[in-house]
Amino acid sequence: MATLLTKDVTREAYLASDLQGRKLIVTLKGGDMIAFRPKGRKVTYEVPLAACYNMALIYSAHEWYRKRLEEYNRKRKAGLRVRKPKPMARIFSRKYYEALKIN
Predict the structure, then answer these.
(1) Dihedral over alpha carbons 27, 31, 33, 36 (to 10 degrees)
(2) DSSP letters along the chain, please?
């Protein structure tokens, strides 16, 4: 069983950075929020974990579709008759897809 998130947990990101190249400090907050802050700065950007979860669902579904499409293209080049995979239905707001740059 997982531990409840009652206290803030702060870690420095391994590869993620802001536009100026500063490492990101990530904080999981007790109220089901996640906060990002560039190292050496005071400004903090907070997002609800539910919004991050929704974006993760969209991103994962898009990656699955991309892999199925690559498999489809590989089989087509080999001369096999296969059915083209259909993309998953867009069940979230259009802004989520735009933020992830998914067409």
Answers:
(1) -30
(2) -PPP--S-EEEEEEEEE-TTSPEEEEEEETTTEEEEEETT----EEEEHHHHHHHHHHHHHHHHHHHHHHHHHHHHHTT---PPPPPPP--S-HHHHHHTT--
CA–CA dist 54, 44 (Å, integer): 21
pTM greater than 0.85: no
- Compare 87 and 25 and report the one with higher pLDDT: 25
Give the burial class of 72: count Cβ atoms within 10 A of its Cβ; 0-12 exposed, 13-18 middle, 19 or more buried.
Answer: middle
Interacting residues of 62 by C-beta distance below 8 A, sequence separation 6+? 88, 100, 102
